[in-house]
Amino acid sequence: ATILEKWLSEFLGELRLDFKLSIAAYAKNQEQVSNELANRQRYEFFCSEFDEIWLMTYDYSIPPWTGIGELAPLKWVNEVVDYTLTKCELSQVRVGLAAYGYDWSTNKTISELDALKSGVDNQSIEYLSKRKEKVKALKEKGIMKYFIWSLGMFDQAL
Predict the structure, then answer these.
(1) Are 92 and 50 contacting, i.e. CB atoms less than 8 angstroms apart?
(2) Considering the entire predicted model, what is its pTM?
């Protein structure tokens, strides 16, 4: 166990009596991936200590660190969930769905609403249709808990 894991175990032991505890985790689809921060996370530790793991299944492609691509390809999201289920119980898994994307011409984030207003089709925007497709596929695996991550969550038009 790492120093952080030891501290977390002690700290969580005190909280567990009064709270349900969740942790947000970088998405990964295998033990070692290109995201060094994700490699430092051990899902089996998270699921032994927390009630839920919140999978940040977005930012597969991130400017300027990756090439142009989808924010959360369905194939990758499925792989992340499949990997997680080898380490965690189904009841512990909550999947993050994005409601934003990237404007590759500026290397900046863009909200779903602004993307719709622009009328420009952009593969890196996570539109409602993509989220629905992911939920449909993940329901078949038994995933029934989700959270939305959006830049501009304050905008009720999203």
Answers:
(1) yes
(2) 0.86
DSSP 128: H
- Phi/psi for 121 (5° steps) reads -75, 130
Nearest alpha carbon to residue 24 among 65, 70, 57: 57
CA 9, 11, 17 angle in degrees (round to 5)? 95
User: What are the tens digits of pLDDT across the range 63-118?
Assistant: 667 888 898 999 999 999 999 999 999 999 999 999 888 887 777 788 888 888 88
Q: Which DSSP symbol is given to 52?
A: E
Inter-residue contact 133 to 125 (CB < 8 Å): no
Label residue 109 left, alpha or beta by phi (over 0 means left) and psi (-120 to 50 means alpha). beta
